[in-house]
């Protein structure tokens, strides 16, 4: 669920949605989502002063709270 949600949200933010790749690494109590976007879209995903990525992380924390897991979002360049 978190992977699909982040994929949908990030694709809506960027100019090149076909370049969005979300990799999910599942641990014991943590899920790591690594997001790769086109170079020119990195700034759009991070946002001014990091506000957009913080909002995405807040949404993930709310979703993950239901499943008692921690979700980490990494933006890769």
Any overview of this molecule?
The mean pLDDT is 91. It contains three helices and three strands, in the order αββααβ. The chain is 44% helix and 26% strand. Strands 1-2-3 form a three-stranded mixed sheet. The chain has one domain: GMP Synthetase, Chain A, domain 3, CATH 3.30.300.20. With 77 residues, it is α+β, with helices and mostly antiparallel strands. The protein is globular and about 35 Å long.
Q: Sketch the topology as an H/E string, one letter per element.
A: HEEHHE
What is the radius of gyration? 12 Å
- Helix % is 40-55%
CATH topology: GMP Synthetase, Chain A, domain 3
- CATH top-level class: Alpha Beta
CATH architecture: 2-Layer Sandwich
Number of domains: 1
The count of DSSP E runs of length 2 or more, i.e. the number of strands, is: 3
Q: Give the count of helical stretches.
A: 3
Mean pLDDT, rounded to whole units? 91
The rough form would be described as globular
Question: Could you give the order of strands across the largest sheet?
Answer: 1-2-3
Protein name: RNA-binding protein KhpA
Function: A probable RNA chaperone. Forms a complex with KhpB which binds to cellular RNA and controls its expression. Plays a role in peptidoglycan (PG) homeostasis and cell length regulation.
Keywords: Cell shape, Cell wall biogenesis/degradation, Chaperone, Cytoplasm, RNA-binding
GO biological process, one term: regulation of cell shape
Could you provide a short overview of the structure?
With 77 residues, the protein is α+β, with helices and mostly antiparallel strands. Helices cover 44% and strands 26% of the residues.
């Amino acid at each position: 669920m978190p992977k699909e949600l982040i994929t949908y949200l990030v694709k809506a933010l960027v100019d090149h949605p076909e370049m969005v790749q979300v990799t999910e690494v599942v641990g014991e109590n943590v899920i790591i989502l690594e997001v790769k976007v086109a170079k020119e879209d990195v700034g759009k995903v991070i946002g001014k002063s990091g506000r957009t990525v913080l909002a995405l992380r807040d949404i993930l924390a709310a979703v993950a709270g239901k499943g008692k897991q921690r979700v980490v979002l990494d933006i890769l360049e």
